[in-house]
Protein 1
Amino acid sequence: MPRLTIDGQVIEVPPGTKVIDAAEALGIVIPRLCYHPALGPAGACRLCAVSFLDGPVKGVLMSCSIEARDGMVVSTEHPEAVSFRKQVIEWLMMNHPHDCPVCDEGGHCLLQEVTVASGHCRRRYPGPKRTFVDQDLGPFVQQEMNRCIHCWRCRRFYQDYAGYRDFGALGIGWRTYFGRATSGVLESPFSGNLVDICPTGALTDKPSRFMARRWDVERAPSLCIHCSLGCNVTVSAHLREIVQVEARYNGDVNGHFICDRGRYGFDYANHPLRPRSPAVMGEETSWSKAIAQAVAGIEEVTRAHGPKAIGVVSSERASLEAMVTLSLLCEETGWEGPAFFQDEETLVKNRLLAQVALSHGIAGLREVEKADLILIVGTDPICEAPLLALAIRQAWRRGAWVGALDPRPIELPLTFEQSGLWDEELKKALLKGAQREEGLEEVLPGWKEALDRSREIVVILGPTVVDISSLRRCGEFVSKLGKKARIFPVFRGPNSLAASALSRESTFRSLARKIREGKIKALLLVEADPFHGTKMRGELEASIRSLELTIVIDYLPSEVVKRAHILIPSATIYEGGGSFINQEGRLQRASPVHRGGIPLRRNLQGNLRPPRTFAKGPPGETAKSSWQVLLELGERIGKGLGIEDKEDIWKVARERFPFLWQVEPGGRISWEGGGVQEEAMEEEEDPSQSSQEMRVLLVTSTFAGEELSQYSSKLDPVRNEARAFFNEEVASQRGLRRGDRIWIRMGDVRVPFSVKTSPKVPSKLLILDPGNEGLWREVREVSKTIGWTEIERA
Amino acid sequence: MVLLRNRKPGRIATLEEYKASGGYKALERALRELSPGDVCAMVLESGLQGRGGAGFPAGRKWMGIAPDAPKPRYLIANADEMEPGTFKDRVLLHADPHQVLEGMLIAGYAVGASQGIIFVRPAYGRIAEILEREVELARRANLVGPNILSSGFSMDIKVHRSGGRYICGEGTAQINAIMGLRPHPRETPPRTTEKGLWSLPTLLHNVETLACVPHIIANGPEWFKGLSRSPSGSGTKLYCVSGAVSRPGCYELPMGTPLREIIYQHGGGLRQGRHLKACLPGGASTRFLSPEELDVEMDFEGLRRIGNRLGTGAVIVLDDRTCMVKATLNLIRFFSRESCGWCTPCREGLNFARELLERLEEGSASFDYPEILRETARGLCNAYCPLAPGAAQPLESLLDLFAEEVMDHIKKGGCPMKQPGQQRG
């Protein structure tokens, strides 16, 4: 271990540590602009110059590029180094416009910070400032090239770290330009990180442009709940509106980055139609009246039909607090539920996935980055958990081999093998893999060699396209790989693992059955919208309509909210905070960011401001966290849980659900899965075996399909159209080519799709991604198979 | 004359002519009689130093590729000649291209390279055509390609046309350029002999260095050493003389020939009625030499002794009617334009210096300019690659040697050389 002296302090650091990091370990922060822990040293800005007084190297050198070695004597305050650093600042400020008052970076600008620190205040450069013509980089990133100081972070992130090529450096010398060949939307779903990573205002956040000064926003550490990864974010709110989400460093989870869905999906909280006040039969009412009505309704149904006539539904996006309160409440009252999942199959798959992963050693993003062999089974990382794709890329950059078994034409920013297997073929392949080491070589050339030299294997497994027996098969397959293999489960929602652990037998489908049978008369829906992603809309509508009482507690202007008899608005994660358990079982907590309320419109016209009435709080801020509402309901129907605040929930939960709560936030839970019935679900016969029809697989994409971000207007410009993926050969036999427009008839609705073809799609499969297609919401039932008679050219 | 012995007006030496002058004998000897280690040892012993500017001992570079280093290995001949005042590679390749090819093959044999690449400056399009044609002829003669001269050694040679930037002449940047990346230099270690092209061992040499190799193998290291006039040098050197001399041109002279002799005897001295004011001894990235230093021996060691560098051996002669500020400005404009943009000193600092020099020349400078220029020059030396430190050389020596002339520019509000009545030459 090298021992070196920095500013008179001796420190011992692991071999390979850069001097800049060694200094930081001592609390000495050497100024830097181009150096970024995730991107490594570049040696471009020259701002981290320090004096090496003695040892293996001498002179003024860059602390980011030099590895700490024994006997080094480093001075960060040596006059020579200080004066050179000042010179670098002077050089950078030669061309930097002094437009800080109108720059969104102002107040958290690294350049501003180092410039002030250097004491640079007098301009000696006599020439004109360099100017560039800016480009339109799409809806997320605002370019202002004149402010650029050429630290190369953007290009290093975009091309090297993230693996996209449409943004980079053009030109040379002092005219070097960071942009695209021409204006256009950035192709990478990680483009928002450019905003975080730019040390000055050259690349700023477009959606929040001119919305708030940095020192005026309310900020708090929060979590991204747009997939199951649980990336850490910092959220900024201003004038009752969420204005910006930034990545928050967490070395155990997301590292420094997040995806654009997580960054720009927040706008559901500002949605103009968001339920802001309680309503009974569509009429706005007071908080107390709504609660009183709900209590009266519940009591009436209970009196007439017993507690089992009340069904309780929640979802994978509810906070752990809500889930726990709801579970306890159901136990206390005898209500039916809570159901967290859509149907039995989803529930079993989620539990099985959790169990398989937890029993084989569960992997998180860090394990993926360290792996040297990554097998993706039934997951499309970019669509289902975007940041996972970045982690896979980091492993690939270090030499990892990546293979995928999935019927979808997966796109990743790296080179990998893919075999478009599904269903029986996938099962067979996994069986072969479980039987013989080289079993996958047939479908994934290169597998055997990669397996032979691998030390750490991660199998990425998702429950969406893989069926129950394949999931189980995958568990056997991973056991065969031995101790060096781990499973990285990808769930659908931010709290799916907790939902799996807290679930009983109830699912929404089972409750719906009971509604049809007349056993359930009332439904309490807590942050759940059964209409989201449903294939059985017609049936669902009929069920909901037949209920005597529908109570909805939610913050989304969802479809079920519109059908609620009693609506009680709840707080989003930004107002209420909450705990979530991510895909690797890590318990994390989000702090409330602001009080909430109807956002102020700031268009200088004044007429859109909320009415000037005298009230105790801002308009629209009455929402409480759903668990608070539930506690109040419980109290009022005489089933109080003895819980006053969050601390109480945690105390109770620790006793009742020790597997979830024995860890401190940030740690991984100790649940080992369990509760999965040994007998496999009854497997449905493959209907396409005997017919000319294609089986339908419904999928979602990065910016369309995830429930919360669906309501974010910030993502509207990048949502994809509806796409239908065909096997290339099958499509060409039918005269269909990539880009053709078709109609697919489903019941009495014709939905337009754009044709995509790939040789990877199995020939008897039709993959449908409804994208942002509005007509899709009219489809009453999505058929399991589709024949060519239902497809016509548009 | 060694390197230019086959030089003919208007055309290259053909393969036959080259062979007739003893060409490809050295290759044959190396392949038949010598082990790769022997060849390396001979080159090391000959004291051959890289002719591209840095003067690193070629043999030591070759030894940097260990016998057990990974394969395939690459050999790159750098013909991206863009240093101002330098045109020796053009002359050399126009005179005797096979000499360079033979040098490449021997070097390739010595380090176990299987692929040779000649990286040619785009302005030298004609040379690229010639090289492609001659490589093809050599291939037909079993001198390039598989199983050369039935020896079992195989090496192919490709001609790569550069996109055309000064920085592409820098070894690591050149390798990036060949890989299709932006031609940014990269910090060493690892040296290119360990991790070069496609992260594999790569030997990169200036074409003049490679042209010396066949002669070392054919005539022995002692002979090669003996060619030099100075004890610290070895071989001959192609000196490019340009500027205010009567007979500008490329002269092959023994290494260590005194500068005075190069300018006055070979270059024909200054033009009628002019006097030597200063000269750059080795291209644009060296310090100005004053007339008092003319007796310096033009080899790497000789110039190092007086705090200068031999560089590419391109002597640019400036006479007494030259404005030194303008001459420096001309150089700094070039460097500022050619900066790759990677690091701050080079990208911004050179531009800063250019703005100041421009104002000095126009007459809108203030008295603190020389100090700012000096600070800037000092700061340039902390750049990422040698481009900016090279650019700092003429700038610093302007301030050292011609401080009065610089002050004159400030006091007189412009270039004194441009005063009425005086004509520019």
Protein 2
Amino acid sequence: MEKFIFGYLMSLFFISSNIYSQSSNLSAKEIVAKADQKLRGKSNKAEISMEIIRPSWKREMSLKSWSKGEDFSLVLITAPAKDKGTVSLKRENELWNWMPSIERTIKISPSMMSQSWMGSDFTNDDLLKQSSIVLDYNHEIVGEEKIDELDCYKIKLIPKEDAAVVWGKILMWVSKEGFHQLKTEFYDEDEILINRMLGKEIRQMGDREIITKMIMIPVEDEGHKTVITYHKIEFDISLNDNFFSMQNMKRVR
Amino acid sequence: MKENKNRVTICSYLSFTLKSLWIFACFATSLSLSAQEEKPKNYSLSGYLKSLQTVSFQDINGDWLTNNFLHNRLNFKWYPSQSLTVVAELRNRFFYGEFVKGFPQYADLLEEDNGFFNLSHNIVEEKSFFLHTILDRAYLDWSSGKWQVRLGRQRINWGQNFVWNPNDIFNTYSFFDFDYEERPGSDALLIRFYSGLTSSIEFASTIADNVGDWTAAALFKINKWEYDFQFLGGKNKKDLVVGTGWSGQLGQAGFKGEVTYFYPYEEQDKFENSVIVATTSVDYTFSSSLFLHGEFIFNNKGKSKEAGPFNVNEPLTAKTLTQTKFSLFAESSYQITPLLKSGVSGIFNPGDNSYFIGPSIDLSITDNLSLFLIGQIFDGPNQSLYNGIGTFIFSRFKWSF
């Protein structure tokens, strides 16, 4: 079943979101929107690795990813060997996996999409709802703090009443310069801290400076973390809609 | 004399292996030289090494029979140009154990190649061991614009369900053969046209030396209302076939199905002897990772009672997926930890009350090494489908590269 979950990756960080602002909390919302937009672009192509770290073991996977707007994504697993060549294609609300060893395309059911993701510390809600940190929350600047020696806005996100989100509260530290999301804390409905996400290693990638390492740490479990590293990423590249086709899913490498 | 013969056979096998290794090394070197400037590389080599141990018995207190094999797979792909791909995949298995000794016909049975070309060979065959090799993929693939043409031994997979695939008329597989994920290939020509981003029309034909063995059919695939639909028609050996299949969703659950109608055009009573095989499946995954999956198969010519004995030797076809009229499949799996997955599957034949149970555990030891333990328990009343088959317990280490 793990393979089916790979498909999820596509919704990970690449879905571009529409930014529209409300009159209330305009500046806080704008800051979050800018940070959110930073990693997305109109389209992008990336090479990424993900490490799942536990006290007694570690697993790593690598992939190539292409995405365009909110609707189209393609992910190719390049490591480990047992999953190499598996491709996931997302077109609007539909998701397919291509399993080269058995020459078969498998359509992913909606419930398969909603399970925990690859045993990592990212919950599916973190991954799927990432694009909604702008739309599903009310934002408020609650202070200013330094993170890794950079001046940051500290922003509190409280979900809107009708929003289907799992978190009760999110605290986010966004650098004043560059709008890097350097630290994020996820709280449950009882305001207990569950996960802490750190953004590290700001580097020039393509036309912009971005965070190239994201570390998700479950607060309760000592020695547990998931590290996502961007090795290469190009933004706003030209990708035809044809790229995200059943045909290309079987050809991409 | 016997010992000498053994020595000669082993020596000749070693020399064969060394020779093939040498040829392969030269080939790989020349490729890597020619590939130096290209990115990504214009070839890939992957595969795995497995060690599978089997214990089988009728009664746990009775005699146990062991069967073991080392299993190596080599997948080689070469991309000489943008549009051309050359693929060769080799499956090598070294068998040893009591089963090999007890069933001398085992090696010969495996050596038989069901394809047009004979690409299966027992390199060495002795009383207690044998080494079998088969080239189960060997094809050229040419893709340009919206067209794709593939010629050679290939897998043409038209299935939609997970367990029973009546639409998969080119190379049907058995659910019980869990160690052959890639499944057999067929010697065929495939021409595919991608009419849209999620639709295609394809024509496939096997290579055969008589009409009765020949399969040729067309498949049309389309995506509509967030469902994948497919329609097929053609000839499958001694039947004319039409069929349809789908993959979609009912609410949050996956919903798949396949139906194929077989019309024996040569027979006297064509309509009476025509066969419909239909399957449908539903799957659901809970957020806890608990996966539930049920599948149902209907075969109008299947036996509604006493469907046994189970014929393991007859090659499986889309028409003979089950010997029963109805069968039910259910499966559940759960990720206990990120490294440990448990599952259990079962088949029940309501006509004769026979059943199959398959509990399993899959453990990831490192990124590329895993241990898989699975049981296959067959039982049922006298004359029923799974009566007298017994219990099989498998343990498998797999190292992928």
Protein 3
Amino acid sequence: MTLALYVPRRSPVHRVPAGVKLLALAVLAVVLFAVPTLPMTGGALVAVVVVGLGAARLPVAALARQARTVLWWLIGLFVFHALFSDLPTAAVTVLRLLALVLAAAVVTATTRVSEMVAVIERLCSPLRLFGVRPARIGLVIAMALRFIPVLAERADRIREAQAARGGSARGIRGLRTTVAPLLVQLLQMAHTVGEALDARGADDVPPARGRRSPAPAA
Amino acid sequence: MKTRDLAYIALFAAIIAVLGTLPAINIGPVPVTAQTLGVMLAGSVLGARRGFLAVLLFLVLVAIGLPLLSSGAGGLSVFAGATAGYLFSWPIAAFVIGWLTERFWSRYNVAWGFAFNVLGGMVVIYLIGVPVLAAVANLSLREALASGAWPFLPGDAAKAFIAAAIADQVRRSYPIIERPQRAVAAR
């Protein structure tokens, strides 16, 4: 399971700060929906491809993979609009979606996950007013990133164990005998991870207010 | 929010991600995936607040460029696509399911759970997903319903039942919802 769509390159696009790229993406989306003309959408699409393949030197496959997930849908949409609306509407609708999907793919492929996490922490800093600490958001993202391969491995192990016993527990029985106990195990694991982190000083009391004593009186 | 709660939230975000590795059935623009099962479970096991945050975290992971949606889609592109409304509806669905589950916690059973999952996991998701599909794809509401809601009824109903059966089992052996609430009240 490859866990990132990031494509490492030394390019000017890669060096642009993540926040700027995300802002540019948002602006592009607003502009394309505000000006639904063929030159605008077509121009945007060409520009996105030039930036992605030219300036950022991304492999065609990196963009094609993202485009492929929406390809059949775009074709269906085009046919639908060509039949029931008119050809220009069909072209604008499809090209606009394709341009946005590719632009987002370029941002994703040129920005490290860690940079994105940093942007998220920064964007969340106003939430301090509501008692949210941005560092906790970074922590929860890090935990989820660690849990994903762990879960994938456990699921594989169960599949293998069932195959080795010559069958699989299916239906309602399977839910009761496999899935629910597995979920309980995972919840216990999460509980343990939480306690372990607290023991290492990740606890939920903000440092400014001082630490709680290890065993608070009831 | 305690670190343990953050761990539960991260766990369910990861569960939704791993459910995406199960093969999806593509019918038209919106795929049938096991991931909404994870959304229903997040609400009915963790409750409203943590369930909402778990699904939101999953979407954040997708947005920052991890290919976690079924069929390996990911990145910001998906939030511009035809199925964006469904994605945005997921955290709300988890919240609604979690809220109802918390309300009826002492009487929770598979039948109630099924009802909550249908309400939060199907009605809410269709209410948000279908209009967005219609807007993004320039379809009429009737056409959007035909390609973005009706084909999913049997699969989603099955998922609502499965999620309720699992949640009921977890509630009896390792209840997550009531204990933290007591802890908060004591503080």
